[in-house]
Write a structure and sequence with these properties.
Layout lengths: L7 H13 L4 H7 L8 H15 L6 H10 L5 H9 L7 H29 L4 H16 L10 H17 L13 H7 L7 E6 L5 H14 L3 E6 L4 H13 L3 H6 L4 H15 L3 E4 L6 H14 L3 E7 L12 H19 L3 E6 L20 H7 L2 E6 L1 H18 L13 E11 L5 E8 L4 E4 L3 E3 L2 E3 L23
Parallel strand pairs: 1-5, 1-6, 2-3, 2-4, 4-5
Antiparallel strand pairs: 6-7, 7-8, 8-9, 10-11
Helix pairs in contact: 1-5, 1-6, 3-4, 6-7, 7-14, 10-11, 14-15, 15-16
C-alpha cells in the first residue's frame, strides 16, 4: 500500500541531482511542487531550494544546510542520504513517478474529505458535489497551495509581474482583450480572476457588445466559453457571422445574399470551424451546474481565457430563498469561480425600469437589479447606453398620442445607419471610471470604436471590418433592436 503512495529513493535522486547539477532546478521547479514529496524533510529541502533560487543564491549543500538550520529544519541523516544517492541526468521519468504518487495521495485525502462532508457534517448533496468537484479540479490542475503566501514568495511573484509588464513595452493590455481600443486603454483589459458585469436596459445591445469582444478573441485564436440562457447557439453564430462579414443580420437570417456575400460567408464559416468557441445554450442553469460545467470544460480545454453568461437574472436559483439572496449567491459564486479558474467571467445583467423615469437615463450602479451583491462582488461594471433608443421610443409615443387625438403626425426622428453609443465604466476596482465612445452599426448589431487609432504607419479601426464596409449595403438597413 505505502509503496503505491511514495518512493523515497526517487525523491532522494531528484534532490541529489539538483544539488550536483543546480542548473536543472529551473525546469524541475516548474514541474514539481513542495507537496509532491512525501517525506516532510524532503519537502523542507525543496522549499529551501526554491527560496535560494528566488534570492539568486547558489543551490548547493552549504547554502541549503544554512537555510535549514535557520528555520530549525536541518536533518543531517536525511542530507547524507540525499548526497549519497546517485544523481540522474534524465529526470523526466523520475518526476512523472513522483507526480503520479503525489496525485494518488491527494485522491486518498479527497476520499476522507468526502466522508467528512457527507457523513459527519451532513451537508446537502448538491453542496457535497460542488466541494468534491472543486477539490478534484484543484488536484488535476495542480492547484494545491498552502494556506498563506509568505513575503518572499509575494515579492518574487510581484517582481516577475513587473518585469513581464516592462517586457511588453507600451502594450496597454494586461488582461484579456475587450475588442475595443479605447476601452482597453481605460481598463487594460479584463483581468484574470475578475468578475465583469455588463448591464443595460433591453434593446441597448449588451449581447451585441460582448459578442464583438468574443469575436475579437476567437479571431486571435483564444478560447471562449459562452453560456447563452436567452437565445440558441445558432442565433449567436448568425450574429458572429454578421460581425465578421458585414452582411446585415436580416439577410443572413433569410439567406438573401448576392454571390460576393455568399463567398464572404463561406470564408467566415471556414474560420469559425477552427474557432475555439464553446456554447451552452440550455435555457435553465443554476450556479452549481454552471460551476461544474465550466470546471470540466476548462480542464478539457485549458486554452479558454474567458467565460460569458447571458444573462445573470435568467439563471435559476438554488433552494427556496428570496430572489435577492439567490442573486447574491450567484454573483458571489461567479466571483469565486473566476478566481479559482484564474480567468475573467463576464455576466450580463438587466437594469431596473425606474431609470427611464429620469431626465438623464444614463445608468448608475443603483439601477442594477438586485444591485447590492452584484455591485459588491464585481471588479468591473460596464453600462451600455444608446440615446437613440430613447429618442425612437419617444417618437413612437408622440405618434401614438397624435393618432389618439386625431391629429396629423409628422415624424422628426431620422433613423440612422450608425448611432452614437457610450460604454459607461460605473465601477473599476483597479482603475478609473468614465465613459468610452463607440459607434453602433444597427443592421450588423456591431459596435466599433468611435475613432480610428494608429497601428504602425496605418490608421485602422479596432474591429476586423471597418465602418466603411457598411456603405455598399446602406439600402439594406433593417431596424432590429438587439438583445
Amino acid at each position: 500500500m505505502q509503496d503505491n503512495l511514495y518512493n523515497l529513493a526517487f525523491e532522494r535522486s531528484i534532490l541529489s541531482s539538483i544539488v550536483f547539477e543546480p542548473q536543472q532546478f529551473d525546469e524541475l521547479s516548474v514541474a514539481l511542487r513542495e507537496d509532491d514529496f512525501y517525506l516532510p524533510a524532503h519537502q523542507d529541502i525543496f522549499k529551501v531550494m526554491t527560496q535560494l533560487l528566488q534570492k539568486d543564491h547558489p543551490i548547493d549543500e552549504e547554502f541549503i544546510k544554512k537555510e535549514l538550520i535557520k528555520i530549525k529544519k536541518f536533518d543531517e541523516q536525511v542530507m547524507l542520504e540525499i548526497l549519497s544517492a546517485n544523481p540522474i541526468s534524465n529526470t523526466k521519468a523520475y518526476v512523472e513517478e513522483i507526480k503520479d504518487k503525489s496525485l494518488k495521495r491527494h485522491l486518498l485525502t479527497l476520499t476522507t474529505e468526502i466522508k467528512r462532508v457527507t457523513v459527519e457534517e451532513e451537508l446537502p448533496s448538491a453542496e457535497v458535489i460542488d466541494i468534491v468537484e472543486k477539490k478534484l479540479y484543484d488536484i488535476t490542475q495542480d492547484n494545491q497551495t498552502s494556506d498563506f503566501k509568505d513575503s518572499p514568495k509575494m515579492t518574487f511573484d510581484t517582481m516577475e509581474y513587473i518585469k513581464e509588464m516592462k517586457a511588453r513595452g507600451n502594450n496597454i493590455l494586461v488582461g484579456v482583450d475587450t475588442g475595443y481600443h479605447e476601452l482597453n486603454k481605460m481598463t487594460t483589459g479584463f483581468g484574470k480572476g475578475d468578475l465583469v458585469i455588463i448591464a443595460a436596459r433591453p434593446a441597448m445591445g449588451k449581447t451585441s457588445f460582448i459578442l464583438n469582444t468574443v469575436n475579437s478573441l476567437i479571431m486571435q485564436g483564444k478560447g471562449v466559453a459562452f453560456f447563452s440562457l436567452e437565445m440558441p447557439a445558432e442565433q449567436l453564430m448568425l450574429r458572429l457571422l454578421s460581425i465578421q462579414t458585414s452582411i446585415p443580420l436580416q439577410k443572413l437570417r433569410v439567406g438573401d445574399m448576392n454571390d460576393d456575400q455568399w463567398g464572404s460567408l463561406n470564408g467566415a464559416i471556414d474560420k469559425m470551424n477552427d474557432a475555439k468557441l464553446y456554447v451552452d445554450d440550455h435555457g435553465s442553469i443554476n450556479i452549481n451546474q454552471l460551476r461544474s460545467k465550466l470546471r470540466k470544460l476548462k480542464n478539457k480545454h485549458p486554452e479558454i481565457e474567458i467565460a460569458v453568461i447571458d444573462y445573470l437574472q435568467i439563471m435559476s436559483g438554488v433552494g427556496n430563498q428570496d430572489r435577492h439572496l439567490q442573486v447574491s449567491e450567484m454573483s458571489r459564486g461567479l466571483k469565486m469561480l473566476a478566481r479559482e479558474l484564474n480567468m475573467p467571467i463576464v455576466a450580463l445583467s438587466q437594469l431596473n425600469r425606474g431609470l427611464e423615469s429620469r431626465n438623464d437615463k444614463r445608468p448608475m450602479l443603483s439601477d442594477i437589479r438586485e444591485s447590492g451583491s452584484i455591485e459588491q462582488d464585481a471588479d468591473i461594471i460596464l453600462f451600455v447606453y444608446r440615446d437613440d433608443v430613447y429618442l425612437y421610443k419617444e417618437e413612437k409615443e408622440r405618434e401614438k398620442a397624435a393618432k389618439a387625438d386625431g391629429k396629423e403626425f409628422i415624424s422628426e426622428y431620422v433613423e440612422k445607419e450608425e448611432e452614437d453609443a457610450e460604454i459607461i465604466i460605473g465601477k473599476q476596482r483597479n482603475g478609473p471610471t468614465g465613459h468610452v465612445k463607440l459607434v453602433f452599426q444597427k443592421k450588423l448589431t456591431r459596435f466599433v470604436d468611435a475613432q480610428p487609432f494608429a497601428k504602425g504607419v496605418e490608421t485602422v479601426y479596432e474591429n476586423v471590418d471597418t465602418r466603411s464596409a457598411n456603405i455598399n449595403v446602406a439600402n439594406d438597413m433593417v431596424s432590429m433592436p438587439p438583445l
